[in-house]
Write a structure and sequence with these properties.
This protein is an alpha/beta fold. It has three domains: 122 residues, no CATH class; 165 residues, P-loop containing nucleotide triphosphate hydrolases (Rossmann fold), CATH 3.40.50; 55 residues, no CATH class. The chain has 14 helices and 17 strands. The strands form four sheets. The protein has a six-stranded mixed beta sheet with strand order 9-10-8-11-12-13, sandwiched between helices. α11 links the parallel β12 and β13. α4 packs antiparallel against α5 and α5 packs antiparallel against α6. The termini are far apart. The N terminus is likely disordered.
């Protein structure tokens, strides 16, 4: 890995603001070791004959953490990293982002290893993309395009595929480039002997038509989801949504709580399509638990917009479980990125439980300190892998739900009412049970809706 430090400092609002750009060159595993940079990291799963990446860390993450996260993205796409380059600049170069000298350096490395793709961990403007592709002997992709490619690989349902295609086309539209008169198409008839409509204009019109068609299809998806939610809302079953940074363990926790078999993977964005399962809380209340796509630093706005149909489950949830990686040294930065997306979804004000996952990976000293801290806060420490802390999490969900609250009541039910007694045992917590002749005297706590249906058996109002 080659690093160049040209620190940028902000004297107005912060004492120091780090801006780091990183580049990594990826080649196919078939390339001999002798042709790979001596500082190259270990190979990842191959995606194609070669690829390269250039990354810029956010000002909140340090250089190594930013590069490690981008390397995980590249790994999720299946690429093989051969060498990494980094650059720190005070401001981006408007023409190429990284400057002419660094472009020439990357071009030399690409030529030496035979790479056919350069990946930037930074969004490129149409002008920067065009200039870089003209200067480098291979294709160039930026961070958003890489994330869109990962999403496209993991989309399984028709809804997910429509949303990914819409995001890809909306991102591609302003970045289409033509080749002037070489792409002209002459029309027929009088007055059409000029250069004619270019193929670029034709492509843009076709993409716009396809975007309009996809938006109509997704609108029908939203209508279907709205009807499904209306049917669910006709029965008082609240929804709780899992949200969090990608690879924080949401799917593992979802499987542990529901017994589902959702794909669990250390790769980023392994779970894309939303999942919904019913679980029972300690109060015997039923809830629907929703697993959604993970968030990431600088999540492309086109994805948030295109995946609004999927992310509506977050907007409609009564309580959010914010799953956080307790092992990560950048937990606060990841938390702020999740909150930024929740704000875009107008869900930041919803009741939220902070769930600190992966405590089984902490040392004994770290774990004891974390458990001591969470004991006096609204946070819950859990391990989705071992199941530790799940009882406390379910109790916290019970306490956070405000619809159909749990209330206590005393009931007196005739023994011959077997169906009523069975419903009480199934849907409430029975604290005491006494027999008085032909009557059963019960002290219970349970959902207000269920106790309301049994009002004729209540001994007194609470």
């Amino acid at each position: 890995m080659v690093g160049v430090d040209l620190g940028a400092h902000s004297r107005a609002n912060r004492a120091t603001q780090v801006g780091t750009r990183r580049a990594a060159l990826c080649v196919d595993s078939a390339v001999p070791d002798s042709s790979v940079d001596e500082h190259s990291p270990e190979s990842l799963d191959p995606l194609s004959s070669g690829s390269a990446e250039l990354a810029q860390s956010s000002t909140e993450l340090d250089a190594e953490e930013s590069l490690a996260e981008f390397r995980e993205l590249v790994s999720s796409a299946g690429a093989v990293v051969a060498a990494e380059l980094s650059q720190r600049r005070a401001r981006p170069d408007p023409a190429t982002l990284i400057g002419t000298g660094k472009v020439e350096e990357i071009a030399g490395i690409v030529a030496s290893v035979g790479a056919d793709l350069v990946l930037f961990d930074h969004d490129l403007t149409p002008t920067q993309l065009r200039n870089l592709e003209a200067a480098l002997p291979c294709r160039v992709l930026d961070r958003t395009q890489l994330i869109l490619d990962i999403f496209a690989r993991h989309a399984r349902t028709r809804e997910g595929q429509l949303q990914v295609e819409l995001a890809q086309l909306e991102y591609m539209l302003p970045r289409l480039t033509g080749k002037g008169k070489a792409m002209s198409q002459l029309g027929g008839g009088i007055g059409t002997r000029g250069p004619g409509e270019t193929k670029l204009e034709t492509d843009r019109r076709q993409i716009k038509r396809r975007i309009d068609h996809l938006k109509l299809d997704l609108e029908s998806v939203r209508r279907v989801r709205k009807k499904q939610r209306q049917r669910r809302e006709s029965v008082p079953v609240p929804t709780v949504a899992l949200v969090g940074y990608t690879n924080a363990g949401k799917s593992t926790l979802f499987n542990r709580l529901t017994g589902a078999q959702v794909l669990q993977s250390s790769r980023m964005f392994a779970t894309l399509d939303p999942k919904l399962r019913a679980i029972e809380l300690p109060s015997h209340r039923k809830i629907l638990l929703s697993d959604t796509v993970g968030f990431i630093r600088n999540l492309p706005h086109t994805l948030v917009t295109s995946f609004r149909a999927t992310l509506e489950e977050v907007a409609q949830a009564e309580v959010l479980l914010h799953i956080r990686d307790s092992v990560s040294t950048y937990g606060e930065e990841q938390k702020s990125q999740v909150e930024k997306v929740l704000d875009e979804l107008e869900s930041l004000a919803k009741p939220r439980i902070e769930v600190l996952n992966k405590i089984d990976l902490l040392s004994d000293h770290e774990r004891s300190g974390l458990l001591e801290r969470t004991g006096s806060s609204d946070e819950v420490a859990v391990s989705a892998s071992t199941g530790e802390g799940l009882d406390a999490l379910l109790a916290a969900i019970d306490q956070a739900l405000h619809s159909d609250p749990v209330i206590e009541a005393e009931l007196r039910v005739p023994q011959q009412e077997g169906g009523v007694l069975a419903a009480i045992d199934a849907g409430m917590v029975v604290h005491s049970r006494e027999y008085e002749g032909n009557l059963v005297h019960l002290t219970v706590s349970g959902p207000a809706s269920l106790i309301g249906r049994l009002r004729q058996y209540r001994l007194r109002d609470e």
